[in-house]
Design brief:
Layout: E1 8-13, H1 16-29, H2 34-41, H3 45-52, H4 60-69, E2 74-77, H5 83-93
Antiparallel strand pairs: 1-2
C-alpha cells in the first residue's frame, strides 16, 4: 500500500508530442497560465507555448528516443509533498523552517 496517493497524469508516453500534451493538460488542470509556469520554470512564455505545441525540444526528443531504444515509456504522476518541500517553501517565503 502506498503512503501517499498518486494521481496518474499520463502513462505510456512514447513521443515528445505526447509529453507536451500531457504537461499542457496538467498546467491547465491546475489553472495556471503559460506565463505563470514559464516564470516558475525560469523560461519564457514563448518557449513554453512552443514546447506545448511540439515546436521546442530542449532535449526531449533525445530523452524520448533513448526511452524508446531501451523499451521504456515515460509516465507522469503527481509527486507527494515532502517535508523538504515545506522547508524550501518556508525559506522562499522568508518564514523560519520547522524546528
Amino acid at each position: 500500500m502506498l503512503a501517499h496517493s498518486i494521481e496518474v497524469i499520463a502513462s505510456d508516453l512514447r513521443t515528445p508530442p505526447q509529453l507536451s500534451r500531457a504537461l499542457r493538460a496538467r498546467r491547465r488542470s491546475l489553472g495556471l497560465s503559460q506565463a505563470d509556469v514559464a516564470e516558475l520554470a525560469g523560461t519564457s512564455p514563448q518557449w513554453l507555448s512552443g514546447f506545448e505545441n511540439g515546436k521546442g525540444s530542449c532535449g526531449t526528443h533525445r530523452v524520448m528516443r533513448l526511452a524508446e531504444v531501451l523499451g521504456l515509456s515515460v509516465a507522469l504522476h503527481e509527486r507527494p509533498v515532502t517535508d523538504m518541500d515545506r522547508v524550501f517553501a518556508a525559506v522562499t517565503e522568508g518564514a523560519p523552517g520547522p524546528r
